Amino acid sequence: MGLLVDGKWQDQWYDTKKSGGKFVRQASQFTHSIGPDSEFQAQSGRYHLYVSLACPWAHRTLILRKLKQLEEHISVSVVHPDMLDKGWQFATAENPFPEATEDHLFGASHLHEIYTRAEPEITTRVTVPLLWDKKTQQIVNNESSQILRIFNSAFDELTGNSDDYYPEALRSEIDEINDFVYDNINNGVYKSGFATTQEAYSEAVAALFSALDKVEDILSKQRYLVGTQITEGDWRLFTTLVRFDAVYVGHFKCNIKRIEDYPNLSNYLRELYQYPGIAETVNLEHIKRHYYYSHTMINPTQVIPVGPELNLDGPWQR
Ligand SMILES: N[C@@H](CCC(=O)N[C@@H](CS)C(=O)NCC(=O)O)C(=O)O
């Protein structure tokens, strides 16, 4: 784990000293869009997505890529789940992992090489997801929430798929629930797990479970977060829920309850997991391995728990 400073890799864990033990997530640096008004046009085969199957932020983009039938238009490289002293690395013949790949574009050994290829003097954290433009050799975007919006609509003419996960009429409701879910749940699990003081941890975990209680209540009255229609808000929540009982309960100490203990959240989770195409985007082997093996500050033995038994394929009722 580390970051690039002036284009040089530095091995360094998140610095929580300045923030009283709290984990503060940094803003993403590349925020271009794709479309007629952009230098980045929607073209088949032009873009490449770098992801980790373990990462909830990258997972969202894989879900939209699948739902919007973009797989044949946007190629993908999948990093190895072990994110160690040089950050995200690619699989190699000596260091393979099922479903992890090499860097299909440049044969790089680490993801930070892709960032410095775009900007040799860059100072940044080296995160997934990352959307790369093969034509201009630039990074288009490394902010998952924006990549979702790009995938939702920018390639519709190419694919003929106009399914809309951010419909105009629901935008303000989606924005509102997204902000709440992001701050308290998506990022809330990280704020709990990466906290380095009791106070910071206790505060984050209380906010997390109060938010889960609120979402449980919403889902007791309606099928999806903003009503009867599935939207990006649901997919953004899903990628945290599907990791929760397997990793966040134990590794991040988010253990007041499990998702399985919430009747509506657990049924909703199973419904979304079984939505056509989604289960194949979920890789629990990468998920468990990444968190338990990479975060040696939290789990220095790197021992990966065997359980829990999950029931994602079980029946659901909504
Ligand atoms: N704001 C980014 C966050 C992405 C992110 O933090 N990804 C994690 C993996 S789950 C990462 O690559 N972390 C490496 C680091 O922070 O050094 C997004 O949503 O796209």
Automatic annotation (TrEMBL):
Give the organism the record lists: Planctobacterium marinum
Instruction: Cite the active-site annotation.
Output: C55 (nucleophile), Y190 (proton donor/acceptor)
**Mind telling me which Pfam families this protein's record contains?**
GST_C_2 (PF13410), GST_N_2 (PF13409)
Query: GST C-terminal domain: from which residue to which, for each copy?
Result: 167-294
Instruction: Name any one GO molecular function.
Output: glutathione transferase activity
Provide the site residues for: Lowers pKa of active site Cys: Y248, Y291
| This protein's GO CC annotations | cytoplasm
Q: Tell me the InterPro entries matching this sequence.
A: Glutathione-S-Trfase_C-like (IPR010987), Glutathione-S-Trfase_C_sf (IPR036282), Glutathione_S-Trfase (IPR040079), Glutathione_S-Trfase_N (IPR004045), GST_Omega-like_C (IPR047047), GST_Omega/GSH (IPR016639), Thioredoxin-like_sf (IPR036249)
Q: Which residues bind glutathione?
A: W88, R125, V126, T127, V128, E143, S144
Q: What is this protein called?
A: Glutathione-dependent reductase
